[in-house]
Amino acid sequence: MAATPNSSAETTGDRPPGLRDRARRAVRSEVAAVATRLFLERGFAQTTVDQIAAEAGLSRASFFRYFATKEDAVLGHLEGYGQQLRHALSERPRQEPVWEALRHAFDVVLEVISQPEALNIGRMMNETPSLKARHIEKWLAWQELLVPEIAERLTESAAHSPDPRPRALAAAALACLDAALEAWVDSEGTEDLRGLFTEAMAAVSAPVHA
Amino acid sequence: MAATPNSSAETTGDRPPGLRDRARRAVRSEVAAVATRLFLERGFAQTTVDQIAAEAGLSRASFFRYFATKEDAVLGHLEGYGQQLRHALSERPRQEPVWEALRHAFDVVLEVISQPEALNIGRMMNETPSLKARHIEKWLAWQELLVPEIAERLTESAAHSPDPRPRALAAAALACLDAALEAWVDSEGTEDLRGLFTEAMAAVSAPVHA
DNA sequence: TCACTCTTGAGACTGAGTCTTATATTCAAG
DNA sequence: CTTGAATATAAGACTCAGTCTCAAGAGTGA
């Protein structure tokens, strides 16, 4: 079985974290760093996979063994946060209002995102549709992870088979994150990301009645 | 000036709708029909642009003069609805609560989407990431059109420069549309799309407090 | 040492999207 | 009706992302 992109062969926990695995992780993050640097220097479209591979010292073929797509070299690290997010939500108290539970759960993500380098990546994403699209795909994966968790918190109120509400809530929360992130990038990082997010969440759950 | 994909050279209204223009529109929609049929028959990935071009009786190069991407052959018609949506929102009474205004504005879109053929396209989209991604890009364009319109309805409450709320509201409404559409496709079209959308909108603006 | 497995590099191959060039086709004057 | 500018087209070269196959390393366990 050959390793597929985004797998670390740790489907079930081998007691020792696996030496093979650590190596893979290390290479992955190193290549990602190189790629991101090149993208920021020359632009995303202007940087070819061959250039990244050459600069990082591996073959083109190997690059695609570490990343499914060119975009994933920048966004690959988002993969894992979906599970963390889901877990954070599942740990919120059962009787907490869904929207509030979601707001708290997102703390995990906000923590990671508000690194100053995210500013550059954010700007690049705004100029690069394919990157933005791939970014959203990642978030859609998060969304799907959140849906069952949210659904459980709604069961009291008659959920007929295809209930649009859990997905709507998950997607709306993600929408708030997106809006907050956008505003944060626009402000050059001067505003507080967490505050912007809270503001967005509040505006959506109780829209100002003009 | 050569015609670019998605332009009909009617940037300003030439009084006669333009014979050239009508021809272009006609070809465009005919090619789109052929493409959609082939996609549904053989699958999106299994259908090449060459096949579409051959079947539709034009050259590969010409295909890309009508559609910027292969995905646009299915999604191109969404282009125009953004403006309609924005217009519909702008016509809602000034004192109406934003969220309610949005809900009504989306009627325009719901009308168009709830065609039975949308079911097949919806199913195909769920199996085709690139298509889904492109679809979301279209919606992002709608979102950006709605933002200024929503911002105007919030001005009373101190909008400091980078205000995340308008975008959050626009994106959240789109999220509801997405969730409703998903549920609708899951139900094989048996459920009422408009009803599902209303339900989603209600759940988000006043989440059930478990 | 002998398998066995996993990783790598090399390179062929498909297909999307861009671009250039040359040939119609349309349309507006004269 | 003809000339000339603008535009639409086909043809095909070209770049690059992503897939696939194959053969050669490199680590591990007997």
From TrEMBL, chains A, B:
Keyword annotations: DNA-binding, Transcription, Transcription regulation
Q: Does the keyword Phosphoprotein apply?
A: no
Domain HTH tetR-type, which positions? 25-85
Organism from which the protein derives? Salinactinospora qingdaonensis
Superkingdom of this protein's organism: Bacteria
InterPro entries per the UniProt record, alphabetical? DNA-bd_HTH_TetR-type_CS, Homeodomain-like_sf, HTH-type_TetR-like_transc_reg, HTH_TetR, MftR_C
What residues are annotated to bind DNA?
Answer: 48-67
Q: Which PANTHER family match?
A: HTH-TYPE TRANSCRIPTIONAL REGULATOR RUTR, MYCOFACTOCIN BIOSYNTHESIS TRANSCRIPTIONAL REGULATOR MFTR-RELATED
Q: Where is the signal peptide?
A: none
Q: Protein name, please?
A: TetR family transcriptional regulator
Q: Where is the composition biased (Polar residues)?
A: 1-11
Under Gene3D superfamilies, the record lists:
Homeodomain-like, Tetracycline Repressor, domain 2
Give the region (Disordered) as residue ranges.
Answer: 1-23
PROSITE patterns listed in its UniProt record: HTH_TETR_1, HTH_TETR_2
